[in-house]
Amino acid sequence: MDCLVIGCGLSGAVVARFLAEECNKKVVIWDRRSHIAGNMYDCNDEHGILIHKYGPHTFHTKERYLYDYVRRFAKWKEFKLTCMAKIDGKCTPTPFNFTTIDAYYSENDANRLKKRIKEVFGDQETATVVELLESKDTYIQEFAEFLFQKDYSLYTAKQWGIPAKEVDPSILKRVPVRFSYKNGYFDDAYQVMPEKSYVSFFEGLLNHNNINVELGIEALHHLQISNDNQLLLNGAINNKPVIYTGALDELLSMQYGSLPYRTLQFDWKFENIESFQDAPVVAYPQAPDYTRITEYKKLPVQNVQGTTYAVEYSLKYEHRRSMEPYYPVLTEQSIRQYEQYRERAKKIKNLFFCGRLADFKYYNMDQALKRALELCNELKSYIN
Q1: N or C: which terminus of the chain carries fewer CB neighbours within 10 A?
Q2: How many domains does the chain have?
């Protein structure tokens, strides 16, 4: 073994492929789970429906080079995700758009609001709910307040376990408001899903003679950091590069306290009906506990009998329980806390880290891929 990679999700697998292919290094990947692909893992359920075990994933990017990268290892097909939110008993597209205005306003009020938006924002196609809330126009501000009270604040509080005003502003800006009737969750030029499965993509990505994947291994039982910032592997000093994609606080023994994450719980259901809901993913901000429901026969479209859907609950992640951390909870305090871990980790000369958990960032898949490829360039300089 020349290099050790901790985690066989997208970040770890991409870096492993680079080290094996471009640097001709023997790479071992450890993952605590019994399968490859991390949270992108998919499989057929007992009814023959392809499901995403850890929640819905679609690959979308504005960057051609990222799209070209994933195409090296599997065939992909165009898939433009549509999402909705159920508010006051009615479903409306998300991102919210002019259809939303028509659904919740009288015809005269809707026309007046749409006109005011065009007057204020001109040719601008979207804006964040934060921008709308800060608008000096009364009608626009009232619309923003309606969206915030009926959706953003409720959904954010359930998803993150804290009031919306406490989360990092980047979270509220993830889903904009559209100034048109355009549908579709993303605006990226490339929106695709694997023709076969995400697992098949990972099998192609990991298919290299220099890569050895070992599953069911808890890396932190073997890997420690000494007080003088040495990487210890089974108690002995290890000078070989280690690429870590897990949570930094766990690697560094909670030195600065536990970083906050959210975990997910899924209630899987099957019904012998043609369709359960109007879109693959529907958010339920006003539901008392769950956040959204994903209907998997629509993600992508599958010609099968019946339908499988997952009711999703967001919960506080607790380190000592058998939970998976999914999302870093970004607040001013947690970002400062993470910076302490990052500074400590940077002092370990042969430790490299990336990924949603290790970087403590709410990455989409393309952002995680981009970050992993950037790390590959750093590793090239280090190894050479």
Answers
A1: C
A2: 2
d(Cα 45, Cα 327) in Å, to the nearest integer? Answer: 25
Neighbours of 172 (CB within 10 A): 18
Domain interval for residue 130: 83-178
**Tokens found for residue 341:** 């871990």
Report the DSSP beta bridge partners of residue 193.
Answer: 77
Host H or E run for residue 270: strand 261-271
CB 143 within 8 A of CB 113: yes
In a domain, 357, yes or no: yes
Nearest C-alpha neighbor of 233 from the set 241, 242, 243, 224: 224
Q: How much is the CA Rg of the chain, to the nearest whole Å?
A: 22
- Please enumerate in sequence order all residues whose Cβ is within 8 A of that of 369, keeping only pairs 6 or more positions apart, or say none: 10, 11, 14, 61, 66, 69, 70
| CA nearest neighbour of 103 among 196, 181, 29 | 181
Residue 85 phi, psi dihedral angles, 5° rounding: -130, 140
d(Cα 113, Cα 318) in Å, to the nearest integer? 45
Which segment of 68-77, 88-97, 161-170, 199-208 scores lowest on mean pLDDT? 161-170
Are 280 and 295 a contacting pair, CB within 8 Å? yes
Find, among 235, 125, 250, the residue nearest to 179 by Cα: 125
140 is a domain residue:
yes
**Residue 3 and residue 241 in contact, taking contact as beta carbons nearer than 8 Å:** yes
Residue 175 near residue 155 (C-beta atoms within 8 A): no
Is residue 21 domain-resident?
yes
Cα separation of 158 and 163, whole Å?
Answer: 9
Q: Is pLDDT at 191 greater than 90 in this prediction?
A: yes
Summary mean pLDDT of the chain: 96
CA 272 to chain centre: 30
What would the mean pLDDT of 243-259 be, rounded to a whole number? 97
Strands 27-31 and 211-215: parallel
Q: For residues 286 and 9, what is the distance between their CA atoms, to the nearest angstrom? A: 33
Rounded Cα distance, 28 and 210, in Å: 8
Give me 284's structure tokens.
């339920």
Q: Evaluate if residue 319 carries a pLDDT over 90.
A: no
Q: In CATH, what number is assigned to the domain containing residue 16?
A: 3.40.50.720
